[in-house]
Amino acid sequence: MTRMEPQPGIMDIALYVGGASQIAGVSDVVKLSSNENPFGPSPAAIAAVERSARTLHRYPSTDHASLRAALAEVHGLDAARIICGVGSDEIIHFLCQAYAGPGDEVLYTQHGFAMYRISAMAAGATPVEVAERDRTVHVDAILAACTEHTRLVFIANPANPTGTFIQLGEVERLAEGLPEQCLLVLDGAYAEFEEGYDGGAALIEHRDNVVMTRTFSKLYGLGGLRVGWGYASRDIIDVLNRVRGPFNLSSTALEAAEAALGDHAYVEKCLAENAKMRSWLTEALRGLGIGVDDSHANFVLARFSDPAEADACEAHLKTQGLIVRKVAGYKLPEALRITVGDESACRRVVHAIGQFKAVAE
Ligand code: PMP
């Protein structure tokens, strides 16, 4: 019998571990582990999903022209320089497939998002992890780590799971200092949560070595439909389209994303609620003696005194029907990442952590 072997390195890829959404034996569960919109999708997106059912016998658009035009309009971009993917995960994947292979290095930072490593390894490239400073992307450390083999540098801004943010001047300094053969990918999965930040879109207008990725999974509440997009030079978008499957996005996903994008009032309401509850949650946790950096996203990172305390707190929260995210896999074993929920969820989680702290002391 022939034993089919995968490509070298594939079996070294650690499986992505997703968060649970249920707790056995506990009802009234609140999931605060995946940075989802606590208010759900906009009613306009739900209506679009229902409408889309009538044409499900048809293949979806191959070029996503309508969604790209809507994105271009809302963000003031050139539609021809946009590509859509099955979540921004797929754009990350396309970038690695198209630009990195055996012998090439893909850089990301110490607490960087798991998909950078997975996609780099799936392409046969060498993943290289660079230290951060105070849980924040450190531009000089990245520049110092670049070699003649570096092809891609991924940074998320705001970053996950730390919630930290680097100013545009720093991003620009990074883009400017990278070796010629290297692309900078600005992962903007949480860009909308930083007021006034364009995800790096303006930078791309005058720098052809920068790519921006965005998603409908967070602010727009459509994680279940998997819609992401990227923005770059025409040449890069042309390259990425060559590795993209023709029908990568379903018609339902495309229509819902376009409707969600157009529901400005809903988006504004979600942003305002997030800002309000994020500062409330941050202050309440700090009041309990927990270390919390200012977050620029829709979650906070709660740092406990050691990994055992973080684990014990996570277990206690589970008994209270609250699911938060352990981030030991992101080299933060003493921390828990907590999505900013609605007011009642935030109050519940603070109350339960308060209970835990009271018993522990
Ligand atoms: N980048 C970052 C930093 C993320 O946190 C996530 C989701 N957890 C993604 C990309 C991927 O999001 P999606 O594929 O749902 O667009």
From TrEMBL:
Record's keyword terms, sorted: Amino-acid biosynthesis, Aminotransferase, Histidine biosynthesis, Pyridoxal phosphate, Transferase
Domain Aminotransferase class I/classII large: 28-353
Family: Belongs to the class-II pyridoxal-phosphate-dependent aminotransferase family. Histidinol-phosphate aminotransferase subfamily.
Known partners and oligomeric status: Homodimer.
NCBIfam families: hisC
Listed pathway(s): Amino-acid biosynthesis; L-histidine biosynthesis; L-histidine from 5-phospho-alpha-D-ribose 1-diphosphate: step 7/9
Catalytic activities: L-histidinol phosphate + 2-oxoglutarate = 3-(imidazol-4-yl)-2-oxopropyl phosphate + L-glutamate
Superkingdom per UniProt: Bacteria
Cofactor(s) in the UniProt record: pyridoxal 5'-phosphate
InterPro entries: Aminotransferase_I/II_large, HisP_aminotrans, HistidinolP_aminotransfase, PyrdxlP-dep_Trfase, PyrdxlP-dep_Trfase_major, PyrdxlP-dep_Trfase_small
Native organism: Primorskyibacter sedentarius
Pfam family, one: Aminotran_1_2
Annotated PANTHER family: HISTIDINOL-PHOSPHATE AMINOTRANSFERASE, HISTIDINOL-PHOSPHATE AMINOTRANSFERASE 2
Its EC number(s): 2.6.1.9
One Gene Ontology MF term: histidinol-phosphate transaminase activity
Matching CDD domains: AAT_like (cd00609)
Sites bearing N6-(pyridoxal phosphate)lysine, chain numbering: K218
Record-level GO BP terms: L-histidine biosynthetic process
Name of protein: Histidinol-phosphate aminotransferase
